[in-house]
Amino acid sequence: MAIAIPWLEEVVADGATAGFERGEGTFFLEVHDASDAEEGLHEGDRLAVSADTDAEPGDLVVWWMGKARTQALARVGDDFALRAVAGFPGPPEEGGNPLVRGVVVGRLRRL
Fold it and tell me: Most CB contacts within 10 A, which of 39, 47, 83, 90?
């Protein structure tokens, strides 16, 4: 049995996401193959992400290695280390330079 690896898809802003826009630095991602009761994430959730907001301990952030399919979610720890959530992979400990793409500032759930 294959294990589904969660992934994020960038989506175009629409009427449902309009209330979450915070300027040009806001973009939207749809969650696929992830479910995490602790984080409250479900298949099809849309996340509003601000590239203009500074990440602080406790924030949910989108990090990546510079390519769309490497985007993942992580929680910022008190030591500012990124901790993987919802089955997403964590940043590599060595041999990479993960970049925080933005802070999750809103969540939309399809009913």
Answer: 47
Q: Is 106 helix (H, G, I), strand (E, B) or coil?
A: strand
Distances (CA, A) of 98 to 24, 30, 42, 51, 87: 23, 20, 24, 15, 17
DSSP character for 53? S
Q: Domains in the chain and their CATH numbers?
A: 8-13+22-108 (2.10.109.10)
DSSP 36: B
Its pTM stands at 0.87
**Digit-coded pLDDT (tens) for 17-67:** 777 666 788 999 999 988 777 888 888 999 999 998 899 999 999 998 777
